[in-house]
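> forwarded from #structure-qc
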């Protein structure tokens, strides 16, 4: 009986302890690159956060509806500035917590414009796409429960490479917190 009691107590203690490799859920704010985490790029504006539909609509007005419809939880918007070929350039990073992977995939599909091309070579996340504008590049991707959008106001190859670097950085941060080491 004593052995059974001891074994039962050990089992209960083992099951009650958090698993060593489990990581807490990640907050969108924790996914933002720090100043110069991407060399030469620093935050250039105040962080903008929305945690409900009203706050989201105040940030992006009517553009926010698909996010709300698809399970929006929280978002963080941060602008960065750096130089490309000696000229100052601004980049905007938007990260949305969309509740779960189904919602992240759904909003990725719902906000597509049809002018993007898939990014398939060493792309971030589960799916990624690039939209080349007249003066900018926009990259969208989803990974885990997060949807991310990066817009850089530079339509050169070096501008695209910086935007891709930001995407890969965020995707790695997501995976560092949602996977077991």
């Amino acid at each position: 009986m004593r052995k059974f009691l001891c074994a039962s107590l050990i089992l209960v203690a083992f099951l009650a302890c958090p698993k060593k490799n489990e990581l807490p859920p990640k907050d969108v704010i924790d996914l933002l690159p720090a100043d110069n985490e991407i060399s030469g790029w620093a935050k250039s504006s105040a962080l903008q956060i929305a945690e409900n539909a009203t706050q989201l609509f105040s940030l992006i007005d009517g553009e926010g509806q698909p996010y709300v419809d698809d399970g929006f939880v929280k978002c963080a918007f941060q602008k960065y500035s750096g130089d490309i070929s000696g000229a100052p350039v601004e980049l905007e990073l938007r990260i949305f917590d969309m509740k779960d992977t189904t919602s992240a995939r759904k909003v990725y599909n719902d906000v597509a414009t049809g002018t993007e091309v898939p990014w398939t070579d060493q792309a971030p996340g589960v799916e990624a796409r690039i939209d080349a504008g007249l003066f900018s590049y926009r990259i969208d991707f989803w990974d885990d429960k997060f949807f991310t959008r990066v817009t850089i106001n530079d339509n050169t190859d070096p501008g695209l490479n910086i935007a891709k670097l930001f995407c890969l950085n965020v995707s790695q941060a997501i995976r560092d917190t949602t996977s077991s080491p």
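QC bot note: Residues 25-178 form a domain with the Protein Transport Mog1p; Chain A fold (CATH 3.40.1000.70). The chain has five helices and eight strands.
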